């Protein structure tokens, strides 16, 4: 008593709140940090606000900040059991930002998070993945056009020593000596740099431009196919999307002549096929265990969804993908991978409860005929063509003129088989060389 009460600390003073801005984050008073947390959680808990905030950040050229604003919604536990259409819009915008930034890791994180959010909506996940593949494909095509335009803009004479000597060879006259020397100095520095790069790397200017502009986006497109296939390969509802992505990946390898990616794709598909081969036995065992649990009055364990290769629809999808693999590997002359595709088709035919339709088998034997014709195996080439004609006759979908043409092709292929057993020259009996 009698002593004055000490003043409270300065941090406890009550001051009017300023308008919310980014500078509030560095304000020293504690209640401002609480205010900032409340403001940020609005975007975290409300997907519509997060999407609106992302559009605002994109408008001011801040795609990374927009990515963070959307990431909080997709990774929130609040939305894992409460799917809404706005989540699909957020995932689509997230994919667009990932493609814009060229970030494969962010793309994979987005698909993993949205797969959890859309557990009961597989069609929504399929729409997001298809959007990713389409956007990545368009961005790679745009990069290819940019690379070609850049290569065309550069002077082709910069890659030749003759051009260097011609441009640097001085005139005998004395007129405009200073201007000529300045032009020669600028040109010589560019040409010397180009020649030095050619000597060190062994690549031309066009190849270096492709490595700088096109190669990163080709890698992004390839990784997009790989991530999409890994996301849905064990989901029975999205098997059509899985094989659609696989066939698009094969077309990508053929368009850009990506042999290493084609081999990796074939290895991945074979690994996925072998992992699904024993799913039928595992599913039967789980069904028997569930029936026994119900008979005993117990609650059975939930049965896991598995991809069953014996189902006719699944089997047809796998065979169509292997046909595409056979076509692309033969075009790229990767004969070992083509042989593996033939082995996979034989395995699928053994697993089939019913034989495939004649039209499917006819397409398969035509692909085999192309492979054997290119490799010079005349006997197998003629046999494949004979099977192809027989199956087309069973299907009954061809006209009389087409059947006559097919019979002539089989006859010519049989006559081209050497009698001594020596191999036929490559391409001599291929269907493309027979009128």
Explained architecture:
This protein is mainly alpha-helical. It has a domain at 372-435. The protein has helices at 30-45, 47-59, 63-74, 85-101, 104-117, 122-153, 161-168, 177-201, 205-232, 239-255, 259-277, 279-295, 312-331, 335-351, 358-375, 378-395, 400-415. α9 runs antiparallel to α10 (239-255). The longest helix is centred in the first third of the chain and has 32 residues, at 122-153. Mean pLDDT is 78; it is low at 10-43 and 426-435.
First-residue to last-residue Cα separation = 117 Å
As a percent range, the share of strand residues is under 5%
In which range does the helix fraction lie? over 70%
Structural class: mainly alpha
Radius of gyration, CA atoms, in whole angstroms: 32 Å
Any low-confidence stretches, pLDDT <50, length ≥5?
Answer: 10-43, 426-435
| Gross morphology | flat
Q: How would you characterize the largest beta sheet?
A: none
Please work out how many helical segments DSSP would assign: 17
Mean pLDDT: 78
Order of helices and strands: HHHHHHHHHHHHHHHHH
GO cellular component, one term: eukaryotic translation initiation factor 3 complex, eIF3m
InterPro entries: EIF3A, eIF3a_PCI_TPR-like
Domain eIF3a PCI: 48-158, 178-420
Keywords: Cytoplasm, Initiation factor, Protein biosynthesis
């Amino acid at each position: 008593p009698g002593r004055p009460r000490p003043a409270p600390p300065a941090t406890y003073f009550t001051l009017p709140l300023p308008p919310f801005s980014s500078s509030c984050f560095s304000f020293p008073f504690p209640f401002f940090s609480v205010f900032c947390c409340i403001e940020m959680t609005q975007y975290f808990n409300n997907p519509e606000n997060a999407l609106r905030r992302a559009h605002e950040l994109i408008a001011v050229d801040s795609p990374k900040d927009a990515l963070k604003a959307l990431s909080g919604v997709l990774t929130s536990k609040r939305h894992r059991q409460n799917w809404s259409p706005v989540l699909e819009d957020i995932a689509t915008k997230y994919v667009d930002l990932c493609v814009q930034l060229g970030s494969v890791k962010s793309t994979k994180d987005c698909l993993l998070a949205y797969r959890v959010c859309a557990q009961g909506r597989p069609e929504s996940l399929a729409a997001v993945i298809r959007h990713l593949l389409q956007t990545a494909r368009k961005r790679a095509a745009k990069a290819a056009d940019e690379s070609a335009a850049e290569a065309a803009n550069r002077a082709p004479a910069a890659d030749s020593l003759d051009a260097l000597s011609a441009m640097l060879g001085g005139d005998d006259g004395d007129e405009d000596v200073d201007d000529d020397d300045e032009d020669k100095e600028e040109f010589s520095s560019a040409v010397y740099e180009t020649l030095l790069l050619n000597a060190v790397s062994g690549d031309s200017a066009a190849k270096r431009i492709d490595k700088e502009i096109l190669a990163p986006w080709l890698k992004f497109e390839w990784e997009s196919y790989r991530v999409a296939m890994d996301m849905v390969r064990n989901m029975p509802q999205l098997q059509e999307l899985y094989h659609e992505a696989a066939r698009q990946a094969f077309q990508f390898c053929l368009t850009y002549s990506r042999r290493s990616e084609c081999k990796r794709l074939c290895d991945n598909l074979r690994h996925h096929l072998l992992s699904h081969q024993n799913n039928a036995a595992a599913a039967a065992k789980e069904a028997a265990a569930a029936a026994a649990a119900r008979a005993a009055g117990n609650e059975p364990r939930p049965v896991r969804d598995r991809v069953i290769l014996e189902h006719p629809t699944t089997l047809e999808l796998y065979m169509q993908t292997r046909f595409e693999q056979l076509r692309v590997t033969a075009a790229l002359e990767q004969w070992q991978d083509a042989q593996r595709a033939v082995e996979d088709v034989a395995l699928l035919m053994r697993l089939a409860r019913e034989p495939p339709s004649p039209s499917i088998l006819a397409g398969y034997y035509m692909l085999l005929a192309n492979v054997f014709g290119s490799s010079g195996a005349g006997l197998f080439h003629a046999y494949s063509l004979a099977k192809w004609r027989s199956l087309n006759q069973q299907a009954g979908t061809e006209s009389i003129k087409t059947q006559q043409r097919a019979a002539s092709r089989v006859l010519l292929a049989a006559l081209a088989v050497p009698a001594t057993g020596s191999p036929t020259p490559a391409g001599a009996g291929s269907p493309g060389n027979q009128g």
